[in-house]
Design goal:
By secondary structure, this protein is of the alpha/beta class. It contains 16 helices and eleven strands. α9 links the parallel β7 and β8. The longest helix has 24 residues. It binds glutamine (GLN).
Length: 480
């Protein structure tokens, strides 16, 4: 299989080829590893390529298939994991220098499930360190480039997951989304990406950013593939007490339903000033497509939207300042120099964290500090409740909420270097979803004049991934 074929390969096609023995998993895996080797010097989508694991698993699947064993649809299919997931015996860095060389002693639940499905792990993908970023430029292992046009960012923080799928380095990838990190790179790379409901997929073994926001989910070339992977990831896990008991639906079999009569709400706050005109036009076109499919598209209001970025960052940085306290250079990753514990910890945190991580630790520590916690942290939690009310009310009026995924087109690499606040503001449409906990799916809607993709975000009530996957799929079928 050549790169052009790999770039388009979906789970359905790959699994048919494998099942009919027209292609072996070893052949598919080797072809993918070759493309990765050729592309990586420029794109930098992987931090670690697990070539030996990949080939060993592929061989094992081929042997099982030769014995006519009943196998999962994911069996033999190459995938990657964002480098926040622990994989036993493999380096896990979260994209941060401070964890360079840290070898995990156990598997994250996500990886346990993938292994059980006999999917083939290609490696761990690059990301903004600890998930702090919107562009993929803030990794301790160098920026990732967008293979569609290497002058542009692929989106972040699951940058390598997005970029590798664009160049054919795997059939799907599992990202992590705290405030848009799956949806943003999906949008900037022209992919489908699902932020799951908080509690739908186990967080066990995934390096934490903000524990009350973090969600795990698939990125793939189309909505159906996302649905298939979700079926394998979703469910309760005794190791993550926040996972929910809601039934895991056969998502990929529920995509064909007509969306006639469905109500889709476009929140007016997401279509105001600052929205790129090409993104706006693409959303209007998408709304027309929904109408042509028999859905009713109406304007709604989420009045607390303007406070979402502030509340998100106050709570997110607070939680992360606490989560990152464990990185003291003693238990994990690189070591600090010095004679005393204080000197060692200063050294390791000074050189191991990048500016963005330091900024967030400082903001979060400040927001939680005595005398300021009421003013910032508590206030932000109150806003969080108001954001939740906004969504609960909206879902009494409509079945699905539709917004642009990102307010702007992908920026050029380096474009926002001197303006961290601008980057935080780019998250305006994705960060409201995480404090509320509902699922959000990014689906490509078209391309801008410069050839870069645009994506829309579809949001449903808690544990109703089935609705947005259905709507996203129907849209995709109509425009393809
Ligand atoms: N861009 C957001 C942030 O920097 C989202 C990150 C994420 O989802 N991991 O916080």
């Amino acid at each position: 299989m050549n790169q052009d074929e790999l770039k388009k390969l979906t789970i359905s096609t790959a699994s048919e080829l494998l099942a009919s023995k027209k292609l072996s998993s070893v052949e598919l895996t080797q072809a993918t590893l070759d493309v990765i080797e050729q592309q990586e010097p420029v794109i930098n989508a992987f931090i670690t390529v697990t070539k030996e694991i990949a080939l060993a698993r592929a061989k094992q699947v081929d042997e099982l298939r030769a014995k006519n064993e009943r196998l999962s649809i994911l069996a033999g299919i190459p995938y990657s994991l964002k480098d926040v997931y622990n994989v036993k015996g493999v380096q896990t860095t979260g994209g941060a220098k401070i964890l360079e060389g840290y070898i995990s002693p156990y598997d994250a639940t996500v990886e346990v499930l993938m292994k059980k499905s006999n999917a083939v792990l290609l490696g761990k993908t690059n990301c903004d360190s600890f998930g702090f970023g919107t562009t993929g430029e803030h990794s301790g292992f160098g920026p990732t480039k967008n293979p569609i046009n290497i002058e542009y960012v692929p989106g972040g923080s699951s940058s390598g997951s997005g970029a590798s799928l664009v160049y054919g380095g795997g059939v799907f990838s599992i990202g992590e989304d705290t405030g848009g990190s799956i949806r943003c790179p999906a949008s900037f790379c022209g992919l489908a990406g699902l932020k799951t409901t908080y509690g739908r997929v186990s967080r066990y073994g995934a390096a934490p950013y903000a524990s009350s926001y973090d969600t795990m989910g698939p990125m793939a070339r189309n909505v159906k593939d996302v649905a298939i992977v979700l079926e394998h990831l979703a469910g309760q896990d005794a190791r993550d007490a926040t996972t929910g008991t809601a039934e895991v639906l056969p998502y990929s079999t529920l995509l064909d339903k007509s969306i006639k009569g469905m109500k889709i709400g476009m929140p007016k706050e997401y279509f105001g000033e600052g929205l790129d005109p090409e993104v706006r036009a693409s959303m209007e076109h998408a709304a027309d497509v929904f109408r042509s499919l028999g859905a009713e598209v109406i304007e709604i209001s989420l009045p607390y939207t303007e406070y979402a970025v502030a509340a998100y960052y106050v709570i997110g940085t607070s939680e992360t300042s606490s989560n990152l306290a464990r990185l003291d250079g003693i238990r994990y990753g690189i070591e600090g120099e010095g004679d005393t514990w204080m000197q060692k910890i200063k050294d390791v945190r000074g050189k191991g964290f990048n500016d963005e991580a330091k900024r967030r630790i400082m903001v979060g520590t400040y927001a939680l500090s005595a005398g300021y916690a009421d003013q910032y942290y508590k206030k932000a939690q109150q806003v969080r409740q108001l954001l939740k009310k906004d969504f609960v009310r909206a879902f009494t009026e409509v079945d699905v909420i539709m917004t642009p995924t990102m307010p702007v087109l992908p920026p050029k690499i380096g474009e926002n270097e001197s303006d961290p606040l601008k980057l935080w503001l780019m998250d305006a449409f994705t960060v409201s979803v995480n404090p509320v906990g509902v699922p959000g799916l990014s689906v490509p809607t078209g391309f801008a004049k410069n050839g870069l993709p645009i994506g829309m975000q579809l949001i449903a009530p808690h544990f109703r991934e089935d609705i947005i996957l259905n709507v996203g799929y129907q849209f995709e079928q109509e425009v393809k």
